[in-house]
Write a structure and sequence with these properties.
By secondary structure, the protein is an alpha/beta fold. It has a single domain, classed as 3-Layer(aba) Sandwich (Rossmann fold), CATH 3.40.50.300. It has a 6-stranded mixed sheet, with helices on both faces. A 4-stranded antiparallel sheet has the order 2-1-4-5, covered by helices on one side. The structure holds adenosine-5'-diphosphate and magnesium ion (MG). Magnesium ion binds next to α2. Magnesium ion (MG) binds next to α2.
């Protein structure tokens, strides 16, 4: 019997894991001399400056840093949402920038789960439908997908909110739906951009507990945050971002 975790057993998801051959991965993330320059008219904004970083599978990475220091930009590169201006970005040993948008979209859905500061739920979809939304690549039937999504909502304690629209949920509940959605395809990397910044303390604590469950399930976590409760967690690798440079990534 495979290990039980937040995600259910690994055996249940063999199909997805086999596609990417996740068990053979050396690095969850590998950045080599990565820079990202935004151009606005004649102005250049150096959001990331020559970042080199290796993250092993299963590491729990916490990055803090002032607003505007480049945290979201870094997550967006790792999450295949944006491209580096120069340097190499590898995720699960795959040089993702060498591929077209269609591959990158599939790769993103399969390998990474994104949790945002402001939840980013689709306002016209129920909690259950939001969780089902990233499952579009699955060849399961609609009712199987519904059952999977309901199970994920149950794991975050929201089985009684499945039919609610985002505006009918509290901030903390919306973030828990977003966490269930991030798990929809059982990705091995979780990317979280200030996941507790907009939450009351009780909801923030629930989110921290869920993040720790991911860690125990062997996921790689990369969390951008100012939350001292996350920064001070044991067994994490903490780095600081300042003006597009990562400090302490040794
Ligand atoms: P953080 O998440 O640490 O607050 P960001 O990664 O959002 O920082 O931003 C880093 C820098 O890049 C900031 O100076 C920001 O204004 C700039 N920036 C971010 N996104 C864009 C964009 N799409 N176009 C132009 N500049 C941007
Ligand atoms: Mg940000």
């Amino acid at each position: 019997m495979a290990e039980e975790s937040f995600l259910g057993s690994r055996e249940d998801h063999e199909d997805i894991e086999d596609i990417e051959g996740l068990d053979d991965v050396d690095y969850a993330v590998r950045l080599e001399n990565v820079s990202r320059i935004y151009k606005i008219g004649k102005r250049e904004i150096h959001a990331l400056n020559d970042i080199t970083l290796d993250i092993r599978p299963g590491e729990f990475i916490v990055v803090s840093g002032h607003s505007g220091s480049g945290k979201s930009t870094l997550l967006n590169l790792i999450g295949c949402i944006d491209y580096a201006t120069s340097g190499r970005v590898r995720v699960m040993d795959v040089p993702i920038e060498d591929y077209d948008e269609s591959f990158r979209a599939t790769f993103r859905l399969t390998n990474t789960g994104f949790i945002f500061q402001s939840y980013n739920l689709i306002s016209t979809l129920t909690a259950l439908e939001n969780v089902m939304f990233p499952m579009q690549l699955s060849d399961k039937t609609e009712s199987e997908l519904e059952a999977d999504a309901f199970e994920l909502l149950t794991k975050v304690g929201l089985e009684e909110r499945a039919d609610h629209l985002p505006w009918q949920l509290s901030s903390g509940e919306q973030q828990r739906v977003a966490i269930a959605r991030a798990m929809a395809n059982h990705p091995s990397i979780i990317l979280a951009d200030e996941p507790t910044a907009n939450l009351d303390e009780e909801s923030a604590e629930m989110v921290r507990t869920l993040l720790l469950e991911f860690k125990e399930a062997g996921k790689t976590l990369i969390i951008m945050t100012h939350d001292l409760e996350i920064i001070n967690l044991p067994n994490t690798r903490h780095m600081k971002m300042s003006k597009g440079v990562l400090i302490g990534n040794d």
